Amino acid sequence: MDALKAAYANGADAVYLGAAAFGARASAGFDRETLEKAMHLAHLHGKKIFVTVNILVTDAEINEVRHTLSFLADIGADGVILQDLGLMKICREEFPSLPVHASTQMALHNAAGAEFVKRLGVKRIVLARECTLADMQKAAGTGLEVEAFCHGAMCVSVSGQCLFSSMIGGRSGNRGRCAQPCRLNYTYQGKEGAWLSPRDLCARDRILKMCRAGVHSFKIEGRLKRPEYVAEVTSIYRKALDQVLSGKFESATEEENLRLKQIFSRGGFTGGYMAGAEDAAVIYEKRVTPEGLPLGTVKSVYKKGGALLCDVSLERKLHNGDGLEIAGQPLRYSGPDVPARKTATLRLRDGVKIGESVRCTDDESQLARARASYEGAAFDKALPIPFDAYLYAMPAEHAFATFSDGENTVSVTAEMCQRSDTHPLTEEAVRRSFEKCGGTPFVLRDLTVETKDAFFPVSLLNAIRRDGLELLSAERIVNHKTEKSAPAAFPEKAHAPGTPRLIVSTSDFSEIDTLLKNGADEVLFAPLDFRAEALLPLLRHFPGNTRLSLPVQCNDDTLSYLHTAAMEYHIPVSLSSPGQMGLQWENAVCGEGVPVMNGETVKMLSHLGYLSLTLSREIKGADIASLPQSAGETVLPVYGRTRLMVLNHCPMRTLKGLRDGKESCRLCETGKGTKDTFLTDRMGASYPLIPLRLPEKCLVQLYAPLPLNLSEKLASHKNISWLLAFTTESKEERLHILRHFAALRKGNSPAPLRIKGTPGRYTDGVL
After folding, report:
1. Cβ–Cβ contacts within 10 Å for residue 664, how many?
2. Could you tell me if 94 and 127 lie in one domain?
3. Alpha helices, DSSP H only, in 346-505?
4. By 3-state DSSP, what share of the chain in percent is helix, strand and coil, each rounded to 5?
C-alpha cells in the first residue's frame, strides 16, 4: 500500500499490482481485503488499478482463478493483465466487465500479435521489452492501446518463454515464482561474470519518441521495489510526460539522472532495445546488486580505541543514515552530516586499501524526501479533491446541504432549524466548519449559503460536513468509469484426435529424409538461419511430412516474409508464439512457444481452429489426463534439451565489449562467435548456446545441461503424440534415440537409452 500511495502521490495515473498467488510476482501480491482497500483509494482519486493474473494455471486452479476474476469484477478493477489463453477465454466469456490487457508474458513483439489479441477483445497490449520504436509504431497502428516499459528491471529472456527457473528448481517464472537464475554468475570463455544480467532500462529521454510512435501508456517496473523507489522514479517520468503534453519536452537534468541512478541502478542504465542498445550496452556482468553513486575515496586506514577506522575524502555530501559500500563491504553511516570536499571518518568491519572508492548505495536524504511525498497527510495534500458546498438553513425548516466535485453531487438533510435573533448562523461560520477537512483529501473550493436568523450549532455543521464528504467519497467510487466490453463467446470446435504420431524437431535439413525413414511420422524443421538467402532454397525443395518451425521472436517484416514464403510454397508451419496467430496460415499447428497448461487453453486453441497443440514442459504428467480429448492432436515433449531462454544479446559480443553492429556481425561464420560455446554455472553444469540468425539480427538460445527423457514414463500416454527435439546430439545418437522411441511407439520394449537425461518437471510439476 505504501508503494501504491507513493505512485499516485507522485503522478501515476494507474498502478498495476498482483492478486496474491496469481500474479507474475507471487510474493508481491495483494490479498483480497487489501486489494479492495486499494481499489477504493484509487477510485476515490480518479486513478486506476490493473491487476495481474498473468500466469499459466493448471486445471486444478481454474475454479479458484474464476473466483478471483469474479471478485475483481465485483470491486471494479480497471483491467486484468493476462498471459494464459485459457484465462482470456474465461474472462471474456464470463466477466465482460473486466477489460483485458495482454501481458508482456505473451511475448507479443509485433503488429501481428496486436491484431491477434485485438480480435479476442483485448483492450491493451503490453509489448515485449525487446520491441524497437518501429515495432511499437506498427503495433499502435492496429488501433489497440499500446503499453511499453520505460524504466526498471528487464528480463534477459523473451518474457513468457523463459523456463530456466522452473527447470533447475521447480519455481516457474510463468507462475510468478521466478528464482532469478539470470542474476547469478556464470563462467563464459574462462571469465566469470553475470552474463545474463541486464542493466535496468531508462527511457526517460525517449518519452517523446515513444509518444510519437503511438505508445498510450508508460510502464515503470516497480514490483518488489521499496516505496521510495516508486516515488522517485514516478515523479521524474510524470514531469517528462507533462513536458510532452505541454509541447515543451526537455532531456533529463543532471540532477534527475543522478536521482535515478542513486535510487537503483546496475552499472548505470541501458536505453533498451527501443534505443538500439546491443550486447555490452545491455548486459552488466560485473554485479547484479545496485551500486549507487561514487561518494569519495579512502585516504587513510587506522585503528583507534580498538576500532578499525578510515578517513574518506568526500566528493558529495554524506548524510546520517546513508548506506555505503567500500570494496564490497556494506556499511551504514551514523553521525553528523559531512559536507562535500570535507573528510569523513567511517567505522569498518574489515580492512580496506587506501585509494578504494566509497559508494553511496542509500542516500538517506533522498529517501526521506521521497517518503515525505506520500506518508501521512502528505498523500491527501498531493491528491486534493476540490468540492463545492451549498447550505440552506432557514428557521422552521429542515436544513439541507449539497456537496459536489463537479461530476458527482450528494445531499444531506438535517433537523429543523430554530430561530435565533442573537446568534444567527453566518457564512463565515459555515466556511470555518466546511474547511476543516483534515484526514480527508477534500478541499473546499466554493461555498454558497442561504440563511437568515437561523440557529445552527457548530457540532451540527461538522456532522453535515462529515456525512456529506463520506457520501461524496462513496459516490466517486461507485461512479468511477471503467470501460466495459461486450460479452464474447469462444465455442469449442470438436476435432477427432487422430492417430498418435512420433514427431522429431531438427535444425539439420540434410537429415530429414533419414529421420522419416527411421520412425519419424513428421519432422519439424527448425532452421538456425532464417535469412532469405539461406532459407528460401530449402523451402523450394521442402520434403513431405515436414513442417517449418517459426522463430519465437521476429519483427513484422521477417514474419511477413516467412508468411509469404510459406503460402507460396504451400509449407505447413509450427507456430512458436501466440502473436503469430495474427496471420492466416495455410496449415499451422501450435508449437512449444504457445504454452498449454490447462483444458481451457486447449478449448481456446480448438475454437481458433488449431488441430494440433504442444503441451508446456512445465505441465505435470498427472495433469495431462484431465485435458480435453476432442481438440485434435495433443503433443507431449518426451525427449530433448529444454530451451531455457531466448536471448536478445550475444554473450560473445558482450564479452568482447561490442555495443553495436549486430545486424552485420559475422563472428559465428568465422568461428569466433557464440556458436558451439556454453555458460557454466557454479555447480559445473554447462548450458549450450545456439545462435538463431534472423534477417534483422541474431537471437541466442540457451539450452539445459541435460536433455529431457521420458522414455520410461510413457505407458499412460500412448494416446497422444510424442515430440523428440534434437539440438546438440551427434547423428549416431539421434538415430539411436529415434529408433528407441519409435519402438516404444509401436509397443515394443527396446533397450534403455544410453543417454543421461532428466524427467524435467514431469513428476513434480512447478510451483
Report:
1. 7
2. yes
3. 364-372, 377-382, 427-434, 458-478
4. 30, 25, 40
For 551-578, give the secondary structure using H, E and C.
Answer: CCCCCHHHHHHHHHHHHHCCCCEEECCH
Q: Whole domain around residue 739: which residue ranges?
A: 502-745
Q: Is the domain of 650 the same as that of 720?
A: yes
CA nearest to 252, candidates 111, 159, 150: 150
Give me the half-sphere count of Cα atoms (radius 13 Å) on the Cβ side of residue 179: 14
Kindly state whether residues 339 and 420 are assigned to the same domain.
no
Same domain, 577 and 460: no
pLDDT, tens digit, 9 for 90 and up, residues 32-60: 999 999 999 999 999 999 999 999 999 99
Give the DSSP letter string of 522-544: EEEE--SB-SHHHHHHHHTTPPT
Q: How many domains does the chain have?
A: 4
* 497 — pLDDT class (breaks 50, 70, 90): confident
- 321 with 397, same domain: the answer is no
The string of DSSP letters for 205-235 reads GGHHHHHHTT--EEEE--TT--HHHHHHHHH
How much is the pTM?
0.95
450 and 589 belong to one structural domain: no
Beta bridge partners of 699: 692
pLDDT in tens, 270-304: 999 999 999 999 999 999 999 999 999 999 999 99
| pLDDT for res 295 | 98
- Measured CA to CA, the distance from residue 640 to residue 755 in angstroms comes to 11
Give a yes or no: residue 258 inside a domain.
no
For residue 508, give the C-alpha cell.
539439420
Query: The domain that contains 190 carries what CATH number?
Result: 3.20.20.70
Element (H, E) at 187: strand 186-188
* Bridge partners (DSSP) listed for residue 222: none
pLDDT for 55:
94
Dihedral class, residue 412 (left if φ above 0, else alpha if ψ from -120 to 50, else beta): beta
In the chain, the amino acid numbered 752 is P
Classify the phi-psi angles of 498: left when phi > 0, otherwise alpha if psi is within -120 to 50, otherwise beta: left
DSSP state of 312: E
Phi/psi region, residue 730 (left: phi>0; alpha: psi -120 to 50; beta: rest), is beta
